[in-house]
Amino acid sequence: MSVLLEAKDLCKTFSNASVQQHVLRNLNVTIREGDYTVIMGNSGSGKSTLLYALSGIERPTFGTISYHGEEISGYSNDRLAVFRRKNCGFVFQQNYLNDTMSILDNIVVCGLLVSKKKKEIVEQTKVLVEQMGLSQDILKKYPTQLSGGEQQRVAMIRAIINKPAVLFADEPTGALNSQSAQQVLDVLTRLNQQGQSIVMVTHDIKTARRGNRILYLKDGVIVDELVLGTYKHNDAKRHEKLRTFLTEMGW
For the chain, what is the mean pLDDT? Predict the structure, then answer.
């Protein structure tokens, strides 16, 4: 698989008055096409900062980030915004749906940022709604009329409507009950099996085991990684392998 994203000597420092917090420290990482990469580590280890840096949301203090070999860390803000719009999808713990817009409009407005072909966007939305296991009637509803799991699946449709090269997910199941979380994880697994590259941050072992590769951060550095291979349902050995790895990491 070809290299999709690459960070070299990545550093990120936040300054508050006279205090400097070094969140990422000379970090190097490569993300390949088709990877389902999970970033783990204790609170404050730099997980979300790394995800935001790789996606162009957060600028590194030092170091470079490249997409398909082209450095993007030096892009202007406007050019970075266009890059994210065309190449990145985002799913967060909060879904950030607009409560004053219908579900269809929440999705279509994001599609129109890249394409002006509204009819095609609407048709693609209907296809994705079916793939997510949702009813077409949901498109007429508003976010407040949906369950948490339904809202998060809608947020995922919105994130992939422009067919991003990589889907970034920051604690996507953190605010969901176990049943809704399972539905969202099943969708992410299916997307990855269809070729979608995913980079995800999580604290949850059940969520993490869906990935084929686990990166463990400690004090802003990747201290080790675990390759799990293709996900299989009810794979007890996979779960135990991940649990052992996390225990060794001091998780």
Answer: 94
